[in-house]
Specification:
307 residues; alpha/beta; Rossmann fold; binds S-adenosylmethionine
């Protein structure tokens, strides 16, 4: 990792600390109500600064520059898996947010049945409004660590940037396993820490922790530990891919917006007073995450597991 990158991260931490005391953020406990509030109070910012279409995940752009079409790349990948399944397949999305993924897939797969589950009532309301005309979708309120569904109810379970929010990642994996039919798939596209996270310089670890907490993630999991946990539950690893390079264009866009927030300092102090706290703190993650991904502290991966 270049010393330039480390220096850039240290400069950003210094600037952030002028506006939001870094230690206070690191001490924050990410409870379920914190997660709900985060998603409720950030929704305005997500809509106007991130994705008008309601995606709460990162765009994947292969050409090296951001386009909103990249928000549909994750559903294109999930759709390819669904094509191998017969009509009437039951599909569950964990942490479905505004319904962006479930609705896109439900339109492309009118014969298959989709259930979206989320913790945040405000996001569920949006999802239900947007899907009112679709007969093959339903949205349910619940916690993916305690699923309100019977054993072996689904052929495919997928999640986009949702299980990273789990306070009990093992419980979330056990629940996905329980509700899957035999041989069913769990497809995850999500952020994880890279292996050997703890060997990173302290400033980079601190930056990565700030990214996690300001995005309502209590503590990131190293990718290989998550897969090991899944194996112990009974899942077999089918595929693993590192997509980090493809989210860099979106992360660069977020970083440029965050710089507008943090510099000059007087403006950041003013914006802090004017904007809801959860929304304002998104700028912390925005300023740092491009660098923590380039430093290979955090990455963006696809993991496909079979029951
Ligand atoms: C980053 S958003 C991603 C939303 C959606 N998957 C997308 O790609 O647009 C994470 C979502 O996970 C939900 N979530 C977090 N923890 C959850 C839990 N324990 N149970 C269910 N949903 C949860 C949040 O409410 C939020 O809608």
């Amino acid at each position: 990792m270049s010393t330039n990158l480390q220096q850039q991260i240290e400069n950003s931490l210094e600037q952030i600390n002028k506006i939001f005391p870094v230690q206070a953020i690191l001490n924050q406990e990410v409870t379920k109500s914190f997660i709900r509030n985060y998603h409720t109070y950030s929704s305005w910012g997500y809509k106007y600064l991130h994705s008008r279409e309601g995606s709460l995940h990162l765009a994947m752009n292969y050409e090296g520059y951001f386009t909103p079409q990249g928000f549909y790349e994750q559903t294109r990948i999930i759709h390819q898996f669904l094509e191998a399944y017969p009509a009437h397949t039951q599909v569950l999305e964990l942490g479905s947010g505004n319904g962006f993924n479930t609705i896109d897939l439900a339109k492309k797969n009118p014969q298959r049945h989709f259930t979206g589950l989320d913790l945040t009532p405000a996001s569920l309301r949006t999802a239900r409004q947007k899907s009112a005309k679709l007969s093959n979708t339903r949205f349910t309120e619940g916690d993916f660590q305690q699923l309100p569904f019977g054993d072996e109810s689904f052929d495919v379970v997928f999640e986009i940037e949702a299980l990273s929010h789990a306070n009990q990642p093992q419980k979330a994996l056990q629940e996905a396993y329980r509700v899957l039919k035999p041989n069913g798939l769990l497809i995850a596209i999500d952020g994880f820490r890279y292996p050997n996270f703890e060997q990173q310089p302290t400033s980079i670890q601190k930056a990565a922790q700030l990214v996690e907490i300001t995005m309502a993630v209590q503590q990131g999991v190293e990718i290989q530990d998550w897969i090991k946990m899944a194996n112990q539950i009974g899942f077999a690893l089918q595929e693993q891919a590192d997509y980090s390079a493809f989210v860099i264009p979106n992360l660069t866009r977020l970083c440029n917006m965050a710089k507008e927030y943090f510099y000059p300092t007087w403006r950041a102090k003013l914006l802090k007073l004017l904007l809801p706290t959860h929304l304002a703190k998104n700028a912390v993650a925005g300023l740092l995450i491009g660098a923590t991904v380039k430093a290979k502290a955090q990455g963006y991966f696809k993991v496909v597991l079979q029951k």
